[in-house]
Design goal:
With 174 residues, the chain is mainly β. The chain is built from 2 helices and 10 strands.
């Protein structure tokens, strides 16, 4: 059973509410110096020049003062809980810059994505969390880019687990 805070439960059961659910994303890759932190809500103004909004949260080891989650024009679909399929999520980003497509085509290793749902009134209290997901697909057009996020593909796992080397299986090399 998943634990949900009293505020989230009250907001879900109320006819109307002031509570806003926010999806926070932390994207890491070996080529990145620091994780890319994204938020689906402009909770507060972070700077005036350049104009930036974001969410300050301590989730996933972020320092709320120096490492805020930056607001992006995006919508998110949470991972499904179907029994016979891997949990998949979708992030749809507004295509506001032509460099986004070039960046998505530039990497060959799968970036790691951690995702959490929090309330705007309490961004440090995690309602739902999904960890160690991978960006497994990206497609887009002139207006939006859709990123598919799922668990690590099972096809990437090595079979058999142990390699038959001289160090691991010396009896085979006599």
């Amino acid at each position: 059973m998943r634990r949900v805070s009293l505020n989230a439960r009250s907001a879900a059961e109320a006819a109307t509410t002031d509570e806003v659910e926010i999806a926070l994303f932390s994207i890491t890759h070996p080529y990145l110096d620091a994780p890319v932190r994204l938020s689906t809500d402009p909770t507060e103004r972070l700077s005036v020049e350049p104009l930036m909004y974001g969410t300050r949260s301590a989730w996933d080891g972020a320092d709320p003062v120096t490492d805020p989650y930056l607001f992006v024009l995006a919508s998110a679909e949470l991972p499904s809980d179907q029994e016979d399929a891997p949990a998949t999520a979708t992030i749809v980003l507004e295509n506001v810059d032509n460099d986004i497509a070039a960046l998505l085509r530039s990497f060959t290793d799968l970036p790691v994505v951690n995702m959490a749902v929090v309330l705007a009134s309490s961004p440090d209290v995690v309602e739902v969390e999904y960890r160690d997901l991978r960006i497994v697909g990206a497609e887009g057009d002139a207006s939006e880019i859709s990123l598919q996020i799922s668990r690590r593909p099972i096809e990437d796992e090595t079979v058999p687990m142990d390699r038959f080397t001289k160090d691991r299986f010396p009896g085979l090399f006599r």
